[in-house]
Amino acid sequence: MSAPRTGLLAGLLLAATTAAQAPSMQIFFGNRPKEEKEYKVARWGPRGLPSPGYAFLAAKVVTMEGDPIEDGVVLTRNGTIEAVGRRSQVRVPDGYEVRDCGDAWIVPGIVDLHCHIAANGFDLNDTVHPTNPEFRTLDLITLQHPQIQRALAGGVSTVLYIPGSGSNMGGFGTLTKTHGDPREALVRFPGSLKIAQAGNPERRTGDLGMSRMGMNQGLRFTLQRGYEYHLAWERFDQGKGPKPEARADLEYLRGLFRHEYPVSVHTQIYQVVLQTFRQLRLEFGLWTFIDHGTFDAYRMSEFAAEIGVPICAGPRAYYFDPAASRFVGIMQGWFAEGMKGWRANQRGVGVDGIAVNTDSPVVPQEQITVQCAMGVRLGLPDVVGMRAMTLNPARIVGIDHRVGSLAPGKDADLGIWSGDPIDPRSHVITMVVNGRIAYVRDPERPLW
Amino acid sequence: MHARILLSLLVLGGIALDLPAQRRRPPTGRPAPAAPDNQPAPPPAASLDRSKVKAWTLYKGADLHLGTGEVLRRGELLVGDDKIFAIGTGLDLPEGGKVIECAGRVISPGFVAVRALGLGQPSGNPGKAADGVNPFDPTIKMALAAGITSYGAIFEGGTASPDGRSAVLKLAFGDLKGMVLQEDSVLQMRVPLNPQQWQTLRDQVKKVQDHKKAVAEHAAKKDNTPAPKPPAGTEKLLRVIDREARLWIGAAGAYDNDAIREALEVARLLDVGVVLVEPLTAWSIPDEVAATGSMAIVNPRQVADPDPGRKDSTGSNLAQCRILSETGVAVAVTTPRGGFAGGPSIGTGGIMGQDLNTPHIDAAFAVRGGMDNREALRTLTLDAARILGAESRIGSLEVGKDADLLILDGDPLHYRTFVQIAVVNGKVVYEKDKEPFYSHIGR
User: Fold this and answer.
1) pLDDT, position A188
2) Which of B321, B352, B418 best probes binding to A when mutated, by most A CB atoms within 10 angstroms?
3) For residue B208, is it left (φ>0), alpha (ψ between -120 and 50) or beta?
4) Domain B2-22+50-434 in CATH: superfamily?
């Protein structure tokens, strides 16, 4: 009688004490190419662009690669971080400009995987067909847009700029920095395929196939065509078949099945996430992540962890559980709690599996830190919150060899903050993107 | 006893009263006239009668954020029934009183939301708000969990002259009588006015002035004839001019400097400070606002880019709260609205940090814009109460004011801080551990 209860108690205690250190999920990357040069469909943006030598000194350097460094220094040159360490251990080379940031914190530039604002106006929500694998956001990037300027002032240096959710398959998104010439700012195109499984496409699809079953069918048909096109190219590459006829509408789906980039899925409630898991991850074997994870789907955290689907939570920060009258933090739910309140002892996605997104302009891009703050307010450990804005989204989308943490060889994208970036009272003093000073706050007229 | 409290306060004033840096910019524009509305009304100390108190409570050991910008470390707060009787250290607890140990906690005045929807207020045109409030509305508990203990219920108004109905309601859960603090202390109008509307307003002001002169002359005569009545249609304007009601001025369309200057012209015509409702660009002319003794309701996160078609267009500025406050303009913060943001309501839609579930996040953005952390608490407490014309009763921990307070587990403006206990009219109306909303979140 008391044994299961003791076990449950012990389990809860364990969860409480080791949540932040709990074994995390393994993200499913499929047969992702190991090196950038092995990519055939996706294009990577340039690296190592000229930038001056800087030595940024600060009271605290949060690298995301280990414990924060007190009294730290970050050396950057030619778009890249050259060294990170304690001031006493890093020699500043001659000719480097020393920027002493005093009590500031230096953190990695923030990465948001659900952004709709890298252009003037909302010109990315087209619907020509019920599914639109022929669409891409690459040609829309407009980084002088005031909303993007504010994003930069809010500490965001990389975004996944994706089509809207007006159709089931909205097209291909672009990973771009938030500063500079669009060619130099490019990180990777395609960044992801945007799929909206439900919650918005219903309003555009028409009266045939507008319920979840119909939308599911349309996606599967299109993905099936893409898969066959991919196989034809694979046969050709192995010398086993003729050269396929080039198809602009299927070309990027080919890269998706080569696991060069993931599918990012706008989801809504439990059923929709279930469909993502079954259809995209298990049936089509895609590198998949939940983007716009809201409502009560966190109850499936164990399923997500088992099949390697990481979670970007937002724009909603909580699910109001009407049965329990509780404000359940969605990030915390996915991270550690699973079916809490339903069936206990579910596994969460853990420290590597959770990120936060804004769906800007739904929540303004510069308020991604508020999204994170609310996740932490509702139970997520703050160290996980910091990962959820930096290293985790970079890993989830496969660009962590470039961004997401402060380490030698990575892009010099630094946020220099007045204090803890999660605290809405803190502000960005200076933003560095690709080694260049991209924003300096004017206290009389702060952009954010 | 009184002398002892006074003495302890004096001593504390020297050693423990933690004053924030006072930063006042010298006005650069026209000199500020003595603005009668620029100082908060004192609490009515005469209402304190110790002999009539039935229940005493002493809150002990917390850091007291007084709501005035000051902090009293490890102080004591003596509440008799529904009023604050003393603040200091080493206070005597009258016999039979209860002590609530608050060591390690922070006590702040209950937050005042200058505008809120729902929360037990009557819907539609209520006539008297007191006839329609619902003290058992479940959103009251959610608002208390967010730290709100009173708010402005603005029912209507916003025409070309002071008009509308409103009430300052308290979240006295379960206590019908405790809910209505006052009615119609806020009237509204909007700008811009067309020339005809200006002429009408000027005519009405003239009528009110003539009426006030007639009343004064009648009073001087000391005969028993009935006092003159205000001319029909000027009753509300009279209340504004007599400072019985705050006049909130919104703007139809963009609240740019043209609209702000027009609202300030109304203030000068009425010779009374007004309340500018979300004036986007007031930061660029703070001295002009201060010179009229006016105040402002600001959503610090509201952004507008400069209009490229206008040379004098400035757009918004995150530093607005700091700039206005430093110039002597009282500021209350309010929540983002429109789009996905919840606006001034307690929602369960999931967008936390953007609605009245977290009013302290709005004030946090005043700090992000450069305002001192302790001063910024005023945007949710004393200055918010002033904007509702209710500062003699609520908005700060001061002797004689209503016992509306929060026991918090951290700095009032820290994003992780939760309300542990909310007290309205001296009664505990919310306890985090006993309500379902946040009890699962440990601190």
Assistant:
1) 98
2) B352
3) alpha
4) Metal-dependent hydrolases (3.20.20.140)
